[in-house]
Amino acid sequence: PPAPQRVLFPPTFSVSEIKNKQRRHFMFLRWKQQQRKEKLAAKKKRRKEREALGDKAPPKAIPKTIENQRVYDETTVNPNDEEVAFDEATDEFAPYFNRQTVPKILITTSDRPRGRTVRFCEQLATVIPNSHVYYRRGLALKRIIPQCIARDFTDLIVINEDRKIPNGLVLSHLPDGPTAHFRMSSVRLRKEIKRKGKEPTEHVPEVILNNFTTRLGHSVGRMFASLFPHDPQFIGRQVATFHNQRDYIFFRFHRYIFKSEKKVGIQELGPRFTLKLRSLQKGTFDSKFGEYEWIHKRREMDTSRRKFHL
């Protein structure tokens, strides 16, 4: 068959000038196809040039991404910062990191939860060791917190829902706070994950915290770390990951599978979910008189796509 003709448009021509919708769509697709071909041809040409030059080829350009063009944040923590080290040695999580307390978590829900939220809480309890699920029946959070403190709970997790879908998570560190409020999305229960592994075992998992770089990020990262006991049981090969990317915290729960001495595979155990920090409050949960350390204000804070807070 003859080679397709190149689409030649007049230099000032715009596809949007075509009045007929179907014709306009067709021409746009042809134009996109041509752009793709040109891009591939340029890529091939560059690759041939690099092969021809061999060792003398210039280093590959680093692609521009939103992450590596991030706007500088003055609260980004230097690992050797003495002031931060002092703050962290005296903050609310210090007893946990000094091994004076053992995590004991209460997981509860909003009032009268539906099936999906209940199942999510049960699965979260298998991820976090020493956690207990309690179904709330009309009891205010302010009434629950003193009872938790009296029974030596170190953290309270509340899963909120809207129209049967889990959509919020409140994490309160006891007895003195702080309290973080997250928006929750993309919740996947175990049965909804493809190629999942067998049920998790009762071994203490490892915890991986990625990209929590600012002072606020450090506080949130320490909050997640203090949910899990100190010494992971590596024999269980389980790992819980909190990965922060563009201020979205992705949670995944995996198991390692050692195929040989050098090859390692992983299988997801679930559940999985995504969190976005809405506010960080000093002290325990108090919606009326609470003092907020940080609140996400979209119109003021989200002025640049390259500005991140965690």
> From the helix content, strand content and strand pairing, which structural class follows?
alpha+beta
Oligomer: single chain
Proportion in helices? 25-40%
CATH topology of the largest domain: Rossmann fold
- The number of helices is 7
Description:
The protein is an alpha+beta fold. It folds into 2 domains: 15-54; 76-302, 3-Layer(aba) Sandwich (Rossmann fold), CATH 3.40.50.10480. The chain is built from 7 helices and 11 strands. Strands 1, 2, 3, 4, 5, 6, 7, 8, 9, 10 and 11 form an 11-stranded mixed beta sheet that branches. It is elongated. The mean pLDDT is 87.
Any descriptors?
Rossmann fold, elongated, 310 residues, 11-stranded mixed beta sheet, 7 helices, 2 domains, alpha+beta, 27% helix
Structure summary:
This protein is an alpha+beta fold and 310 residues long. The protein folds into two domains: 15-54; 76-302, 3-Layer(aba) Sandwich (Rossmann fold).
Write the layout of secondary structure elements.
Elements: H1 21-53, H2 82-90, H3 94-97, E1 105-109, H4 115-127, E2 131-134, H5 141-150, E3 155-162, E4 165-173, E5 179-188, E6 206-210, H6 215-225, E7 238-245, E8 248-258, E9 264-268, E10 272-281, E11 292-295, H7 298-301
Parallel strand pairs: 1-2, 1-3, 6-7
Antiparallel strand pairs: 3-4, 4-5, 5-10, 7-8, 8-9, 8-10, 10-11
Domain Brix: 103-286
Keywords: Ribosome biogenesis, rRNA processing
Subcellular location: Nucleus, Nucleolus
